[in-house]
Amino acid sequence: MNGFLTIAGKEIRDGLRNKWVAGATLLLAALAFALTFLGSTPTGALDVKPLAVAVVSLSSLSIFLIPLIALLLGYDAIVGEVERGCMLLLLTYPVTRSQILGGKFCGHVAILSFATGVGYGAAGLASILGGGGDPESLRAFGALILSSAMLGAAFLALAYLVSVSVRERGTAAGIAVGLWLLFVIVYDLALMGALVASKGRLGADIFPYLLMLNPADLYRLFNLTTFENVRTFSGMAGLSAAVHFSPATLLLGLVAWIAIPLGVAALRFARREA
User: 236: pLDDT confidence band, cut at 50, 70 and 90?
Assistant: First the structure.
């Protein structure tokens, strides 16, 4: 356990000193403030709560930005250490490979969660102080921050699986970008194409389970269909009626997207030569 905590602490300290991580935090905060205040301008006339508008806007932003940050943060976590020769040195210390992998992963999750919490939390706090904090919207915003951290952890787990599976950082970087394109852009386009091509034969019994195969879709469904005020404003009421998964099921789906790739990465790392 001491080795695990030491490695996690080192990753956190390195991350906090990293200008790239600071830049990601500032970017999330700037975009969150812009979407929160510019997007909530017409809410008075439409009787929509400003914080609910912020949840819808930030959910759309997060699907594109957080997976990319997570993949870029974790793609060289293992292969980079191997290329630099640091892994051989690290393995001479009294730490196991599972402690190395778990410590690095938890450190990176903490960094990404910090960036998300600070960036989104500051914008949410400003909206609350401006009078936009009704109870349901506050719960929706809290769920947004929690699920955003889980979305980042899911893509970090995928990045770690890539990192232990290849021999060069350049290959890992290319696969990481490919995963982002697949899950964030290509998958939903392919699903829509399949729906059109099937002429309705890809029905309501199959479609919800296909969404479960994409962590970005799980995140979108959880944030845009769980709370009534957010669901109404986002236009997802019809989809919510068709997809019968509870919020707990959607969160468990995200947990599975964290646990399964990370578990496979741990097995591959245990068999890998440093």
Answer: low
pLDDT tens, residue by residue, 163-213: 999 989 999 999 999 999 999 999 988 888 877 777 666 666 677 788 889
For residues 4 and 102, the answer to whether their CB atoms sit within 8 Å is yes
Helix (H, G, I), strand (E, B) or coil at 40: coil
pLDDT value of residue 75: 93
- Residues 78, 271, 254, CA angle at the centre, nearest 5°? 60
Q: What is the DSSP letter of 202?
A: S
Structurally, the chain folds into a number of domains equal to: 1
Range of the domain at 161: 2-271
Q: Helices (DSSP H) in the chain: which residue ranges?
A: 2-17, 19-39, 43-46, 50-74, 79-84, 86-91, 97-127, 135-165, 169-180, 187-198, 207-211, 215-225, 228-234, 237-242, 247-271
Tokens 């959910």 found at: 59
From the list 81, 80, 76, 73, the residue with the least C-alpha distance to 115 is 73
CB 74 within 8 A of CB 159: yes
